[in-house]
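Entry 12.
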Amino acid sequence: MRTDKKFKTISLILKRLRNNKQVRPEEISRVLGEEKYYEFKENLDYQRQLDKVKRPEPIKKYAEMVRIGCVYYGKMEKYLYPPINRALAKKFSNKADKAFEVALEFLKEAVEKDGELLIWVDRDIHDISSFCPTSIPRAIGSDHPYCLNRYKQPYPKLSKREFLIEHLEMALYNLEDRTLDEFMVDPLATNIYSREKRNFDFSEFKF
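Predicted 3D structure (tokens):
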């Protein structure tokens, strides 16, 4: 398929995909070529495997420790409203603080051993303003309203359509580069004027 024809075909397929219209696999295979289409399918299979990645055990344990801290915090708040019981409120406040502190220390130690665990946490673990449910780091995917990242996985997740659009856009980008290269070496493109018109005599000019 000629470069200009392939460019137009990919552009049309992209337009259909962005309008949520169906595109047959053989159409994709034809414009991407056998090698690139195989690469696309391999990458798509790899992305699907990401759905099966489970929370690491240290993150599971940390999430449970935070949950316990939140339970104590909730009990503390309960005794701050009528009928007020300041003694019990103070007791559960201390328990909540301790639970959050221990959880955060556990997380920091786990991250020191395995830095990749950070991708499973929703915020900077070293920038904590206070030990309370609003500021304590959360494991991503938590259902708690204070969790800053509700995605179940830390990896970027695209739909098959989005993934295909991304691959076709890259193919289009590469074609644009090739088209420009072909234009630059094409004698018909560079020979805009005849030799007679381009052979100006500048002898009378002073530079």
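Annotation: Residues 179-203 have pLDDT under 50 and may be disordered. Residues 86-113 form the longest helix (28 residues).
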